[in-house]
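Ribosomal protein L11 methyltransferase
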Amino acid sequence: MTTQTRLFVTAGKIEAERIFTMLEREFEEDGLPVSNAEIDEDREIFEVSVYTFEPDEIEPRIRDVLGSDAFGLQLQREQVPDIDWVAHSLEGLKPVRAGRFFVHGSHDSGRRRVNELGIEIDAGQAFGTGHHGTTSGCLDMINDVIRREHPRNALDLGTGSAVLAIGIAKLAPIPVLATDIDPVAVAVAQENVVKNGVAARVHTATATGFHHPAMRAAAPFDLIVANILARPLMQLAPGMRKHLAWGGSLILSGILETQREKVLAAYRVQGLFHMKTLRREGWVTLHLKAKATF
């Protein structure tokens, strides 16, 4: 596991709020976590932190944002312990319901209601447990799109835990290709696919973007789902259009509300038109089609 670094400054409340806003704006498209935490309630002292695996690249950008004197504050570094923060943060969290889906850990499998489609995902190294607004928004959108359109095949690009691929395979008896750039995520995804009983429908593969033989063999796709980040989604727009069947649907998330228009513009140029937006916890999930239907 790669060690993460926390770059932080300590400041009073007003300064901290201003610094937090500046750093959040600077790093929102990089997807870097930025936090503003109170460390002394009586004196109203806060720490504004940026978490990164590449501190030597990020520190100069922080100094550029804060100015030459950095508000007269000292920019400090701290190594973050190699703790499985996903598992740690999800301890005690309740199952998530989205559309017909019931996303749960193994200890909550007995709480599934009649007619719900259970997806068992325990906290692990891959993103995607259903608790994040982007994941639950995608599951809701998948539920709606599959019910209306009955796609014949699907791609989950940037699959993480494979929660979306599993959801598709449970909702519709179609082949699903689930890919991720991270081999660790793909290994976790494969375990989850087997555990959820959809290994016959879901094929997992390590791939960067659309560069994989399995992608070429399965395309075009009636449904593509990608829950990643705004910047790579915009870069992938031409490839999305190329691999999406005419009349097919595209579901995108990992997009902040403030990034929605930029993403839509990038896809509009490719002839992919906005159909619906779901908003959840400051994030948006977009439904686009290769052919607008009005």
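thats it. The longest helix spans residues 133-149. DSSP finds ten helices and 14 strands in the chain. bye
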